[in-house]
Design a protein that fits this description.
Order of helices and strands: HHHHHHHHHHEEHHHEEEHHEHHEEHEHE
Number of strands: 10
Mean pLDDT: 83
Largest sheet: 5 strands, antiparallel
Helix content: 55-70%
Strand order of the largest sheet: 2-1-5-4-3
Strand content: 5-15%
Shape: flat
Number of domains: 4
Low-confidence stretches: none
Radius of gyration: 40 Å
Length: about 600
């Protein structure tokens, strides 16, 4: 048995090591294809493998994937090129493209990796392009042949690797991860196999012969697969065409290998061909997927609307203002409490309204007919059995070809239960507001003295510091406690101590400025927050407080307080400010009590 920490470490390195091995195999395959094409590859699939791993992995594990890919790239380049400096430069470029593309595509937060959202697909293409260009620049500087042709070839090869390989891996992993939601039927699996096999056959037919110019054939097949299989079909079919065309071109077969300007021009032509195929396939799949998503959302909304109408008992009606004919839905008859055998008319509809609401309803309808503006009102209906129902009616005028009002369409909803509930809710809301006010007051007010509680006064201090920091104003605090308060409790009892606390708090509250705040932080300790007050003002307020407490005492219990004053300094915290004020308070205690000291 391995120790637990080794087992956890092993699990965290499994996928990075597998990704590194996949990167190595993809790199060797890409390098192998360059043998027959003057060192130029059609596609660099290793970049797509690394980018897919970075997009799918937890961001905290990205360094593991970068590390294994760097080792794999270095090994492949050393095997192929042999030179340490060149291999190191190429390895840096190979890892930089995927890292930069993943950083740009994912942004600052871990967003969903999806190629079915057009905006995200555009961002993916942009990120891959930037990564490929930067990688090509690094590789060109590291290459002995740092020509413009080398730069363009590297950028296109890298870009194709990320654009074609990454979507295939990401989509395949997502399908496996959500296989319980997207479990395909056997017929769908069979169709996918047949279609993708057909793409492979069509690509082989085109790129392993030179008799007929059939380059359009894979395009048509890929688009057909896109319409049938969606994003997965797009990624898979483009990847299949890429593999077949790359193998054929590397083996000097097919129409591109026969171009008169040599293999370099043929590879460049093939890369453009594949880029165009990608641009036709995956964006089309993305738009189709987005369309299907919108259709599903619309269908869901229509379902919910129909359910809401059945549940809410909403009826609709229409009046032809020229012929006077009126149509009412079943729910309208139910709201009126009328039999559907009765032909509805405007006179019957208006007469059913409460006498006090009738004139208002008529005015609303006439105004809509005249101005073609919508109406929205509440009124009361009286059913044949005398029952009163509260309704809300909404509607608008419809215009004929001549631009004049030809009819009115309206809806009516029985809101009797709602009106009853609103009355009960108003009563409950008032009670809840009273309870909330009481709870807030209890939480923010010291129950014994009536000044602010510890939590509230510290919150006020934090807010005052923020305001002073933003506005550049002054801020001071005064901390004080009652001298020999323990002796008061011991000699006169806790009830007398409570009265002393109440008397001191009342005296302090009446002595500070209107914009100042005082709170009890525990026992006999208090804090005064003075926003906008410089140190001399705070010192004067503190002296006034000390004097009022000392001279305002009545009876045998004469108490004094000791105070410490501190001014807020920029970049200091509330804890530091209170610490300085407490230090000044202790100086006042040591100096004999019943006095005020200012912090240095």
């Amino acid at each position: 048995m391995f120790p637990p920490f080794l087992a956890r470490a092993a699990r965290r390195w499994v996928w990075p090591l597998l990704a590194g091995w996949g990167y190595f195999l993809a790199a060797i395959a890409g390098l192998f294809l360059t043998r027959q094409t003057e060192g130029i590859a059609t596609i660099w699939p290793a970049s797509g493998v690394l980018l897919a791993a970075l997009l799918l992995a937890d961001r905290r594990d990205a360094w593991r994937f970068i590390g294994t890919a760097a080792v794999a790239s270095m090994a492949a380049n050393m095997m192929w090129y042999g030179g340490m400096a060149t291999s190191l430069g190429f390895s840096v470029a190979n890892c930089l493209d995927a890292l930069m593309a993943a950083t740009i595509f994912a942004g600052r937060r871990q967003e969903q990796v999806s190629f079915l959202i057009p905006q995200r697909l555009r961002m993916f293409c942009l990120a891959a392009t930037v990564g490929a260009v930067v990688s090509a620049g690094v590789a060109t500087m590291a290459s002995p042949d740092g020509s413009a042709t080398f730069f363009l070839s590297w950028a296109c090869t890298d870009l194709l690797g990320m654009l074609i390989v990454t979507p295939m891996i990401v989509i395949a992993v997502e399908l496996m991860h959500h296989r319980h939601r997207f479990r395909p039927r056997p017929a769908q699996v069979g169709e996918a196999i047949v279609l993708l096999s057909g793409i492979g056959g069509a690509a082989a037919l085109v790129f392993f012969q030179t008799t007929y110019p059939l380059l359009y054939l894979p395009f048509a097949g890929v688009l057909f697969v896109v319409f049938r299989l969606g994003a997965f079909g797009a990624a898979a079919s483009v990847l299949i065409v890429t593999l077949v065309s790359s193998l054929a071109t590397a083996a000097n077969h097919g129409p591109l290998a026969m171009l008169p300007d040599g293999p370099v021009f043929g590879i460049l032509f093939l890369q453009i061909y594949l880029l165009l195929m990608f641009a036709a396939a995956l964006p089309t799949a993305s738009l189709l997927g987005w369309r299907d998503r919108l259709i599903r959302q619309l269908a869901e909304k229509n379902e919910m609307l129909q359910l809401a109408e059945r549940t809410a008992h909403v009826g609709h009606w229409r009046l032809d203002t020229r012929s006077g004919e009126m149509f009412c839905s079943e729910e309208i008859f139910a709201i009126y409490g009328r039999n559907q055998d009765i032909q509805p008319t405007t006179d019957l509809a208006i007469a059913a309204y409460h006498i006090d609401d009738r004139a208002f309803v008529v005015a609303q309808i006439r105004a809509s007919v005249t101005t073609a503006l919508p109406f929205d009102f509440r009124a009361r209906l009286i059913r044949a059995n005398g029952e009163i129902r509260h309704v809300i009616s909404k509607g608008w005028a419809t215009l004929g070809p001549d631009g004049k009002t030809s009819g009115i369409f309206g809806t009516m909803q029985d809101i009797t239960e709602q009106v009853t509930a609103e009355l009960a809710l108003d009563e409950a809301r008032s009670a809840a507001e009273r309870m909330a006010w009481d709870a807030t007051r209890m939480a923010e007010t010291d129950y014994l003295t009536g000044v602010f509680s510890r939590r509230k006064i510290l919150q006020i201090l934090d807010q005052s510091i923020d305001s002073a920091r933003l506005g550049g104003g002054a801020l001071t605090v005064v901390t004080f406690d009652i001298d020999h308060f323990k002796r008061v409790n011991d000699e006169h009892g806790h009830a007398a101590g409570d009265r002393v606390l109440q008397r001191v708090a009342s005296a302090v509250a009446s002595s500070i400025r209107p914009q100042d705040f005082v709170g009890r932080v525990g026992g006999e300790e208090f804090i005064i927050v003075l926003p906008g007050a410089p140190i001399d003002v705070a010192e004067a307020v503190g002296e006034r407080v000390r004097s009022v407490v000392f001279h305002g005492a009545e009876g045998p219990l004469i108490v004094t307080i000791s105070l410490g004053v501190a001014a807020w300094e920029p970049a200091s915290t509330a804890e530091q400010l209170l610490g300085r004020a407490d230090a000044a308070l202790y100086d006042a205690k040591h100096a004999g009590r019943n006095m005020l000291r200012v912090a240095a």
